[in-house]
TrEMBL record:
Protein's UniProt name: CoA transferase
UniProtKB keywords: Transferase
UniProt keyword annotation of Transferase present: yes
Matching PANTHER family: E-CINNAMOYL-COA:R-PHENYLLACTATE COA TRANSFERASE LARGE SUBUNIT, SUCCINYL-COA--D-CITRAMALATE COA-TRANSFERASE
Transferase among keywords: yes
GO MF term (any one): transferase activity
Top-level taxon in the UniProt lineage: Bacteria
SUPFAM superfamilies: CoA-transferase family III (CaiB/BaiF)
Matches recorded under Pfam families: CoA_transf_3
């Protein structure tokens, strides 16, 4: 492990998933991330155990995902003592990370000027649903709304024949992408501060992340003035070699062979249909595009003759890109995932084993350190002692209700 952020302290006043994911990524890179939680309720995502989103008696995986490796400090920021404690921590930090709305930041006195009054060199990072400006700056949102629905992703991935827009592939799909972008931006701001001495304010949003993910589609829609961007079903792929096909056992194989003239002879030979090489309907890229429905049908028929297990060794001989369409549980045992340490084996605070996808970048060919999330207020005493509070003072603060 290379702790590229070793020595960096982050004070995080945030909840749910999008912005906390940025803090979680930084813990894997070596940063000390202090998660500030209310002494009584904590991060509301801790309560998801009662909503059916966590298996009975199992690991709170949706809390572990964005809170790995952090230290939990339980402070009541509405009290004078709690706010003073927060600013004491701020004075020792490099980054302040929050997803509180403008009015809440103002009310709690944790806005940019409030924080910089105690640490003028701190990077102040904000994440929101739809940005800090405009008529919706005070409106909250989740990735299903601000990232998925609003930016055209849902409409563009949904076949017209379905009759309704599909939902996200899974929970926190947009959150983890937005958090990754925000963590990268914070890293860049730290680099800028080192070079120039200037402390920046960093802003990200789910709306911006979704628009970025749709960048090519949005640009194309505007360029061609198309309200509905062209879509296709597998039986009508414009390039039959960039498509998904069903095998005999109802598994699917996705091909991405953009240079179809290069890959067509090799592919159809491997599929046991070499006669398609000289078929006048398919003997050039232009003709395959013109006769795409027939070409898709020919490839579909070929794939349907064998199971995926039978096709796999044959497909492995090809030069073009292809992949099995896997289920999420299969990813855990994917040989490439295992070989590259893309998933970490962990235990929660009760000793229950679980797996968590590690940060998607590595340094010096080594994964970061993935650790479990903290219990509510687990590190309050420890952190306050580190910044100079005695145990007697900590007990007084507990009695007053300012801390847990």
């Amino acid at each position: 492990m290379v702790g590229v952020m070793s020595g960096i302290r982050v004070v995080e006043v945030a909840a749910w998933t999008y912005v906390p994911v940025a803090g979680a990524l930084m813990t894997e890179w070596g940063a000390d991330v202090l998660k500030i939680e209310h002494p009584e309720v904590g991060d509301p995502q801790r309560g998801l155990v009662s909503s059916g989103l966590i298996p009975a008696g199992g690991v709170a995986h949706m809390f572990e995902l964005p809170n790995r490796g952090k230290r939990s400090v339980a402070l009541d920021l509405k009290t004078e003592e709690g706010h003073a404690l927060l600013m004491k921590l701020v004075s020792t930090a490099d980054v302040f990370l929050t997803n509180f709305r403008p009015s809440a930041r103002k009310k709690l006195k944790i806005d940019v000027d409030d924080v910089r009054a105690h640490n003028p060199d701190i990077i102040y990072a904000r994440g929101s649903a739809a940005g800090q400006e405009g008529p919706e700056s005070e409106r909250g949102g989740y990735d299903l709304t601000s990232f998925w629905a609003r930016t055209g992703i849902a409409s563009n991935v949904s076949p017209d024949s379905l009759g309704y827009p599909v939902t996200m592939p899974g929970p926190a799909f947009g959150d983890v992408l937005g958090g990754l972008a925000l963590a990268g931006a914070i890293s860049t701001a730290l680099f800028h501060r080192q070079r120039t001495g200037e402390a920046l304010t960093v802003d990200g949003s789910l709306l911006a992340t979704g628009a970025w993910a749709m960048g090519g589609t949005i640009a194309g829609a505007y360029a061609f003035n198309q309200k509905v961007y062209p879509k296709h079903t597998p039986d009508r792929a414009p390039n039959p070699l960039v498509n998904t096909y069903r095998t005999a056992d109802d598994r699917f194989v996705t091909l991405v062979m953009l240079e179809s003239d290069r890959f067509w002879p090799e592919l159809v030979t491997a599929l046991g249909a070499p006669e398609l090489i000289t078929d006048e309907r398919f003997d050039s890229h232009a003709k395959r595009a013109q006769n795409n429905v027939e070409a898709c049908a020919a490839l579909s028929q070929a794939f349907s003759k064998r199971t995926y297990t039978e096709w796999e060794p044959i497909l492995e001989t090809l030069n073009g890109a292809w992949a099995k369409v896997q289920h999420p549980l299969e990813v855990v045992e994917d040989p490439q995932v295992v070989a590259n340490n893309y998933i970490a084996d962990l235990e929660d605070h009760n000793g229950t084993p679980f797996k968590l996808v590690a940060a998607p970048v590595q340094f010096n060919e080594s994964p970061g350190e993935t650790r479990r999330s903290p219990e509510h207020g687990e590190h309050t005493d420890e952190v306050l002692q580190e910044v100079g509070y005695s145990m007697e003072e900590i007990i007084e603060l507990k009695v007053s209700g300012a801390i847990l």
